[in-house]
Amino acid sequence: MHDFDLSGKRALITGGGSGLGLAVARAFAEYGAEVIIAGRRADVLDAAAADIGGNVRTIVCDLAQLDMIPDLVDGIESAYGPLDVLVNNAGIHLKKDALDVTDTEFETVLRTNLQAVFALSREAARRMTERRSGSIIMISSMAAKYGIPKVIAYTAAKAAVEGMTKAMAVEWSARGVRINCIAPGFIETDMSAKALNNDPDRKNRVLGRTPMQQLGKPKDVALAAVFLASAAAGFITGTSLAVDGGNSIGF
C-alpha cells in the first residue's frame, strides 16, 4: 500500500466542492494528502471541507478570469507550500443543438474547460519543473471518445484536453512532471441520476453500450486519480485512462 500513499503530498483540486471533484478530494484526504479545493462558491467549499474533515483548505476563485491564475498559484504556494498534484476537474456544460450555439457560448465553455486548464497547468508546471517533481491530472469525458449530440463546445474542449495531455507530457515529463488524463464514463451523481431517470431511452442507450451494464460511482474516478497521483503510477505519463465500465469500447 505504500506505493499508493499520498502522505506528505499537497494537492489542488479544482471544482472540489461537489460531484466528482468532491469524491477526488475525499479520496486524496483518505490516502494522506493535504487537500486544497477550489471553486466559485464559498458555502459549497466550506460544506465540502466540513464533510471531508481533516486537513482541507478552501480557495474561492473564478478560473475563467485567466489573468488571475498566476497570482492564484503564487498565493496558494506562498500560503500553504509547494503543490505536488494538480487535478483539473472544474468545468461547465452547455446542452444545445450545435446549430444554435453562439460564438459567445462556445467561447465561454472553452474558456473554463480548456483555456483555464492550460493556464493553471502551465503555472503549476513552472514551479513543479523547477522542483523536478509533480503530477497533473486532467479530467476528460466520453465526449472526447465518440460523438455525443448537443454538447459541441464541451466535446471540443475535452478532445483538446486529451491532446494537450500528450503534448504537455512530451515537454515536461523529462523535467519530473507527469501529466495524465481520466475519462469518466457515465457516473452515478445526483445530476446524472436525475437526468437519466427522467429519460429512460437515454438511460437504456447508456447501459446498452456499457459492457459492465451499470453506472460508475464517483469513488471509481477518485481512486483512479489517487493511483495516477501516487508512486504506483511513477512510469505512467501522457495517457488517458477511461473509467467507464467499457462504455468507450462497447457496441
Automatic annotation (TrEMBL):
<feature type="domain" description="Ketoreductase">
    <location>
        <begin position="9"/>
        <end position="185"/>
    </location>
</feature>
<dbReference type="Pfam" id="PF13561">
    <property type="entry name" value="adh_short_C2"/>
</dbReference>
<dbReference type="InterPro" id="IPR020904">
    <property type="entry name" value="Sc_DH/Rdtase_CS"/>
</dbReference>
<comment type="similarity">
    <text>Belongs to the short-chain dehydrogenases/reductases (SDR) family.</text>
</comment>
<keyword id="KW-1133">Transmembrane helix</keyword>
<keyword id="KW-0472">Membrane</keyword>
<keyword id="KW-0812">Transmembrane</keyword>
<feature type="transmembrane region" description="Helical">
    <location>
        <begin position="221"/>
        <end position="243"/>
    </location>
</feature>
<keyword id="KW-0560">Oxidoreductase</keyword>
<protein>
    <submittedName>
        <fullName>SDR family NAD(P)-dependent oxidoreductase</fullName>
    </submittedName>
</protein>
<dbReference type="InterPro" id="IPR036291">
    <property type="entry name" value="NAD(P)-bd_dom_sf"/>
</dbReference>
<dbReference type="InterPro" id="IPR057326">
    <property type="entry name" value="KR_dom"/>
</dbReference>
<dbReference type="InterPro" id="IPR002347">
    <property type="entry name" value="SDR_fam"/>
</dbReference>
